[in-house]
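Interim report, section 4.2 (structural modelling).
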Amino acid sequence: MPSTSGPLTPGLASFLKTLKTNPIDTSIDNLISLLKRRQIRHSRSCATATAYLLRSVISASRTNDANKLIERVQYVGRRLMAAQPREMVVGNIVRRVLGLIRDEAEDDREGDFNLSEAGSESQPQTPRGLDDPTDALSARHEGSDRGASRNPLPALTAAPISMFSLLSHPEPENSLPGTPVSASPSGRWLGFGHGPSKDIRAEVLDGIGEIIDELGQVDDQIAAYALDHIHSNEIILTHTSSTTVQKFLLKAAAKRKFTVIHAESYPNNHEATHATVSGANPHDDELLSTESFQKPLIALGITVILIPDSAVFALMSRVNKVILGTHSVLANGGLVAAAGTRVIARAAKVHQTPVVVVSGVYKLSPVYPFDFDSLIEYGDASKVISYEDGDLVDQIDVQNPLYDYVPAELIDLYITNLGGHAPSYLYRIVSDHYRKEDISV
Amino acid sequence: MAAAISTSSDVAKPFDIVATYNDLLRSDPDLTMPIAAIEALVLLLTHSPSSTISETLDLLEKSTAHLKQSIPNPIGLSAGTDLFQRYLITTLQRPGQLGPAGDFNAIRAHLLSNGRLFIRRAKESRDKIAAFGRGFVRDGSTVLTNGGSRVVASLLQQAAGEKGGPSAVRFRVIYVLSPAKGDVEGSSAEPEGMEMVRALREKGVPVATIPESAVAYSLGKADVVIVGAEGVVENGGIVSRMGTYQIGLLAKAMSKPFYVVAESHKFVRLYPLGQYDLPIEQRVIDFKTEEDVADEAKQQQQQQQQQTQSTPGVKSPDSHDVVDYTPPHLISALITDSGVLTPSAVSEELIKIWF
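Predicted structure of the assembly:
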C-alpha cells in the first residue's frame, strides 16, 4: 500500500525496519532522536516503538540476571523518557517491561521458596505476604495483575494487606535498629538473583511480545464494547481523527443507525479529520494497521456532520453522548487529549451530556499530574498563522497548544480494553499494571 | 516510654487501659491516636496472662469497648483498635508460622516485643508520605493549611528542605489558625500550629497566619489546600478538626485542589452520611435561652469548685476537640503511605482487612 515514503522519511516504519539490522545502541539513539524530533508522535506508535526497542535491548543483553536486566531497561527507559517527557506512553511501556522482569524474578524466587517450604503449597504467596513490609506494599500490585483469572479465594487471603504493614512481623534484618524499612527494590533482589532456575530473559521476551500483541489488538478490543454504549438513533459527538474512536463507531455502525457530529479540531488535526470523515484514506504511514483502516462511517450509511470547533457548544444540547479519544490518561482520572477536548467536555458537562473516553490501557499512566501546565505541549505556530503573514507574526504572539488537560470530574466513563470504568476506579487499573517501585523510573 | 510505664505501674493494681492510653498520648506528642490505642492494647496483653486465642480476643474486645466509651471522640482511636484486632484474627487464620498450626505464643511474643517497632513504623510512614507528597508542593506555589497535623508539618518541612539548600522548594504557606484553646491552664494561650509556623519560618518559608474567618478571602491567593485528618472514613471522606469541612467547600467552590495527608492506619470503618451522623456527641450547636445560660453558669461554678479539689489535669471535651466530616467529593486526593489514592480507594483498603 502507501509504502512510497517508507525508507525515506524517518518514522515508526523505518525505525522498525532498521531495528533488526542496526546495533542496539544505534537503535536506541535512533529512537531518541525520532522522539525528540517528533517524527514518531502518535501514542500507539511511540508505545510500539518502545516495546520493540526494549525487546531488542533485552534479547541483546546476554544476561539472565534480573537485576542486570532491570538496570539495563531502567537506563534505556530513562533516556527515552527524557527525550520526550510528554509522551507518557513511553514511560508506561518501560514500567510494564520492568514489572514483567520483576514478576518473573519473583516467580523464580517463589519457586525456590516452595521447594523448601512444602507445608504451604496451598497458598504459595502467603508466607511472603506479611513477612516483609515493603514487599507487602508492592506485591499487592503484582498479585492483582493476573487477579482476574485467579481463583478469588487464594487471592483474597494471600493478598498482602498494606494496612497491616504497620503491625506485620519484621524481617530479621528490618528489626535491627537503624536499618531502613524500605529496602531499595534492587537491593531486595540481590540475594535471589543467583542461580535462577529458568530462563528469565525468554519469559520477559514473551511478555513483551504480549504487550506488542496488545498494542495491535487494543482498538478492536475496545470496539467490542461499542454496542453497549451506542444505541439506535443517538447523536454522538466526537473530535479528532482518533483511530480508536473511529473503530468504536464503525463497530456500532455495523448494527445500528446513528448520527455522528464530528468537530474538525483545527488547526492541528483538521486535515486528518476531514480525511476520516470523507474516507479519503490518509497517507499516514504512522498508522501501522493500514490494512485494517476501513471504510468511513458514511459508507455504512451513518450520517456524519462535520462542524467547526466553535459550534460545539451550540450543538451540544442535541447530542446524546460525547465519545473522545485521548493522548494519555493520568492516575487521578484526568486525561491529556488533543486541544479542544476540554471545551467539549466542559460543554457536555453544562448540558449534562455523558462523556465517554475510549483509550487503551497502555495510555494509562501512573504519573500523578502535579503540574498540569507541564503536560501541555505546544506545536507549530505556523498552523495558526502562516509565516508568510509577516506583519502579524511580528506583532503578535501566536501559540498553538497541542493538548488539553481534562480534569476527572468532566469525564463520566472510560472504556479501555478491559471494559468500562469510572474515573475514580482508574487508580486500581494503574496499580494492577504498574509496580510501585517502578513509578519513578 | 512504653517500657517505663509498664515497669512503673503497680503490678497489683488492675491494668487501666484508659489511663495507659492517655499517658501514652501525653508522653509522646508525635504519637497519633490509633497508634496510642495499639500500644495500649499491646501493654494490656503484657499485663494479662491469657494464653488461649478466644480468651485474648475476648479481653481485647472488652477493653476496646471500655476504651471507646471513656474517650469523648473514639473515631481515630477505633482505627487503631480495629486494625489490631483484624491483624490478630487474620494472622491466626492464616496458615504459616504464626497461624493456627503454629504457636499462639509466637504471635503474642511478636506483638509484645515489637511495640516500639510499631511506633517507629508509624513515624516512618510520615516520612514516606512526605516523599510521596513533595510533588504536590510546587516551586512558587502557595499552600493553605490548617490545624496542627504532624503529617502536614513533616510534608511541608521536607518540601522546605534545608534553608537555601539544593532541594528546597520555594513556596509560601497560608496557615489557618483556630483561636487559642480555652484550656484550664492558661499557659498554652498560643493557637495550635504556631509551633509548625515557627519551624517553617525558621526554614525560610514565608508563612502568613490567618483566622478561620479569612479562609474565603485568602483562598484566592492559594494554589493548593493541604490538610491533615484524624480519621479517614470508608467512603474516602475525612473526619478532621472543626473547620476543615468549610475549607473543603470553599476550595471546591474556587476549584482549588484539596489534598488530605493521612497515614493508612487512620482508615476507619465508619460510613457517616453527614455531619450529624458521626458516632460521637458534640455540643457544637447548643440552643439556649436566658434561663439555660443562668443555670449553666451556676452549675459551672459548682463544678469548678469540685475540680480544684480533685485532679486538675483531667481533659474535658473542650471546644477545640470538636471535629467535622468532609465528604469525599470535596477531596482531590489522599496522600497516604501507600501512595496517592483517590477517595474511592479507601474502601478497598478497608475491605481487604475486614473481609
